[in-house]
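Progress note, sequence design subtask.
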């Protein structure tokens, strides 16, 4: 009689960081876990504010280095919003956001997922290979139209 093998537990955050060749410091683990749990991309200031209550929060420069190292390791995505502010999200977010269009509010900086698929990619000239396509719309969100800006997401 053979026993079924139990599923291997999911790699913890430290293991995920180490797999990129980086050290799994307390700061990197905290920041990656925060971004994985976040419902939206966060700015450096938002991450800094959230970590302020933590025991021994990293200083501003260290936090920039942590975010940059996670981006370099492919664990975190870095994108600029309509206000020119860098926002960070877990790299898992790219998979979750690949199948739909985003609307970016030019007034509040909010990013909203639209329940509609992106258009098909254009025909490319001979010899070209498409690696990635993203489709974003921009304008004013309903909150800003009503005079109730939505927090940037």
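Output:
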């Amino acid at each position: 009689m053979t026993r079924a093998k139990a599923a291997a537990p999911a790699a913890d955050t430290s293991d995920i960081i180490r797999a990129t060749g980086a050290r799994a410091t307390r700061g990197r683990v905290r920041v990656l876990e925060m971004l994985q749990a976040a419902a939206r991309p966060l700015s450096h200031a938002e991450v800094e504010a959230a970590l302020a209550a933590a025991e021994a929060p990293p200083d501003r420069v260290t936090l920039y280095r942590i975010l940059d190292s996670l981006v370099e390791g492919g664990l975190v995505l870095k994108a600029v919003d309509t206000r020119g502010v860098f926002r960070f999200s877990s790299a898992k977010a790219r998979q979750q956001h690949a199948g739909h269009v985003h609307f970016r509010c030019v007034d509040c900086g909010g990013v909203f997922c639209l329940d509609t698929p992106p258009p098909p990619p254009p025909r490319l000239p001979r010899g070209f290979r498409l690696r990635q396509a993203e489709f974003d719309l921009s304008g004013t969100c309903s909150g800003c139209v009503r005079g109730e800006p939505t927090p940037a997401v």
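The CA atoms of residues 10 and 16 lie 10 Å apart. Work on this subtask will continue into the next period as scheduled.
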